[in-house]
Amino acid sequence: MKRANETLVGAAVLGALAIMVAGSIWLSQARLGRNDQIAEARFRNIGGLQTGNPIFVHGVRIGRVEAILLGERNWVNVRFRIKGDAHLPPHPAAIISSTTLFGDWGVDVVPQEELPDDPEVRKEVADALAAGRERWPGASLPAIGELTAQAGRIAGDIATIAGRVEAAFDTTSARRLQGAFVDLSNLSRRMSQIVLHQQEALTTIGANLDTGTASLARGAASLERTLRRADSATSHEQLQRILSHTDSVTTDLQQVAANLRAVSGAAAAQSQSIGRILRNTDSILGRVEAGEGTLGRLTRDSTLYTESVQAVRSLREMLQDMQRNPRRYFSFSVF
Question: How many CA within 13 A on the CB side of residue 9?
Fold first, then answer.
């Protein structure tokens, strides 16, 4: 009976040892009867990568980090143990990245044609390829903690800008803006009055020019009649030459008068247009000053300013809460 008990105890111990060995083999991902692939990659910086960290292809775990060695010219060589039946890209590159918020790291094996759109990552891969093609080129992405710190700095900058906006645009600024609109309205009214006065003066000048031209025409006609009478009493050829010169002078005077009328008409037309534009501007600014329309309401109503300040304060509180409790807004999972 005692011998039977000892046999049972021995069998139990051997079974426990077998279970421990099998568990150790399973935990170390060793596979009996299969040939693992061994590969190495070259990195400038490996971040927090350690021996035993997983290796992924398209999110599927295919192996683990077996060794980390310091190479020549400040390169870091990382040896990978990969499943024998794993399918690797034709031109692989190893990208080290942080997989969780708790400091867990891993290696993603991607084709060199599908590198992340990050200038630093592409530069590191190009440098590793230039150092030699006997090992995979590698690069490392920033840790999640660094990204969170960067986000915190950005949030602080936004809060600073919001505070400056809140300090710069207040009710005093709104009153100053309203006063500027009032001054512009007064200026446009004065310009309209000046244009009206100038229009009257130009109209008077044009009327005087018309009167003077008519008088010149009557004088030329009287002179022509007088000369014709003199021609009947004197030499025909001399008086004819005098009359021809008189006709040319009269034609020139008529042309000058026509030009003066055209100038006065153009000036009157332009003054009317300017007066109409200024009257419209004065009407628009008057409505703004009276508080009519969207712009007028904005200059008189401080609701937009109050709501903007409240929105900025709410955004600042949300950013501060996001810094204190990032897990409330972001959720990360390893598997």
Answer: 6
What is the residue-averaged pLDDT of the chain? 77
Secondary-structure breakdown of the chain: helix, strand, coil percentages, each rounded to the nearest 5: 65, 15, 20
Q: 195-213: per-residue pLDDT in tens?
A: 676 667 667 777 777 787 7
Question: In whole angstroms, how far apart are CA 323 and each of 1, 144, 156, 268, 294?
Answer: 70, 14, 10, 69, 39
How distant, in Å, are the alpha carbons of 148, 154, 220 from that of 136?
30, 35, 107
Q: How far apart are the first and last CA of the chain?
A: 52
Looking at the whole model, is its pTM more than 0.90? no
Q: State how far the Cα of 240 lies from the Cα of 312, in Å rounded to an integer.
A: 94
- Displacement of CA 114 from its chain's centroid (Å): 28
Identify the pLDDT of residue 33. Answer: 41
pLDDT band at 32; cut points 50, 70, 90: very low
R_g of the chain, CA atoms, integer Å: 48
Residues pairing with 286 in the sheet: none
